[in-house]
Inverse folding.
């Protein structure tokens, strides 16, 4: 199982915007340089409290030229919020800047404020999401031959007579995935040969879900490389905090949530992987054994007290990742 550092927080003080951007940039570059984290993930929330960068596509463009080996994960992007040509252009540019190390995860989001801000009809939320996916796939597949490509996603309309430029570094497009807990959508991921991104809380449920997903992948008729990539980048996300003892980790996490009640992909310590290096290692080994390809780790980012954050990341890199790396994953036939 690979590990990914997730850059997101909910600190609301506007005075902390630039310090937060700088802190997140520093976290990404150090994670990349350290070689233990295989990926950096960014999320998209517009007008929802304050995660400093909001626009994950622009932040990814800023990070990509400075990364040496880490994959960038956009988790998630809602195609209902973007003009499809602009979205394809942006993803292709990030893919070029990061030499093909990009996973674009489609998700409908969880706040209606995003849809309202961009003038989308909230009642059409699911239809716009699915229509957006179909349209960007059409655009990625369009080569300028056989006549123009006309499209409409809600109020966004357009026509292409030539292929989008730049093209993606990875052909024919970046790795695409879908964030979901819905069994029908998970089956759709397997049918498309896409990785699935999920937020299941416990390893037993993750094992059950991934066994079904892997079986559907194996029966999908996709080539071996498509199945390998889908398994490799199928992901679960957990908030993480590590301290010297379980008691210290929980106390620090509780203090963080008092200060930041809407959290960092969690709302309380019970929804996290939280504890000493030994406790966190056991939890991560259980998820690795479930067949997950990637664990997205949302550390507790507090710009006003970064020392605890840095210690948590250091303990995770030095004492957790090396032990989990040896955990066997489920076989492709499981």
């Amino acid at each position: 199982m690979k590990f990914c550092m997730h850059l997101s927080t909910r600190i609301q003080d506007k005075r902390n915007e630039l310090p937060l951007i700088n802190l997140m940039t520093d976290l990404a570059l150090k994670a990349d340089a350290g070689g233990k984290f295989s990926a950096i993930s960014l999320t998209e929330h517009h007008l929802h409290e304050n995660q400093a960068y909001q626009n994950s596509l622009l932040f990814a463009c800023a990070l990509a030229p400075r990364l040496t080996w880490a994959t960038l994960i956009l988790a998630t992007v809602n195609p209902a919020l973007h003009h499809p040509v602009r979205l394809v252009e942006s993803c292709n540019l990030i893919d070029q800047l990061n030499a093909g190390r990009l996973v674009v995860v489609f998700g409908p989001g969880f706040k209606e404020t995003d849809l309202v801000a961009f003038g989308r009809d909230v009642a059409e939320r699911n239809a716009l999401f699915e229509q957006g996916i179909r349209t960007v796939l059409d655009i990625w597949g369009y080569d300028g031959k056989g006549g123009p490509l006309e499209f409409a996603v809600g109020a966004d309309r357009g026509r292409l007579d030539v292929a989008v430029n730049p093209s993606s570094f990875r052909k024919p497009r970046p790795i695409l995935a879908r964030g979901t807990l819905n069994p029908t959508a998970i089956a759709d991921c397997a049918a498309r040969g896409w990785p699935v991104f999920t937020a299941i809380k416990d390893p037993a449920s993750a094992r059950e879900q991934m066994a079904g997903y892997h079986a559907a992948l194996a029966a999908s008729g996709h080539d071996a490389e498509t199945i390998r990539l889908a398994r490799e980048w199928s992901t679960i996300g957990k908030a993480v905090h590590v301290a010297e003892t379980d008691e210290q980790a929980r106390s620090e996490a509780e203090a963080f949530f008092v200060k930041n009640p809407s959290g960092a992909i969690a709302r309380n310590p019970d929804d996290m992987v939280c504890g000493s290096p030994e406790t966190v290692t056991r939890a991560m080994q259980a998820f690795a054994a479930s067949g997950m390809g990637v664990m997205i780790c949302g550390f507790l980012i507090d710009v006003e007290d970064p020392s605890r954050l840095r210690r948590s990341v250091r303990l995770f890199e030095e004492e957790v990742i090396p032990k989990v790396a040896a955990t066997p994953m489920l076989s492709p036939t499981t």
Summary: The radius of gyration is 20 Å. Residues 330-334 have pLDDT under 50 and may be disordered. Residues 306-324 form the longest helix (19 residues).
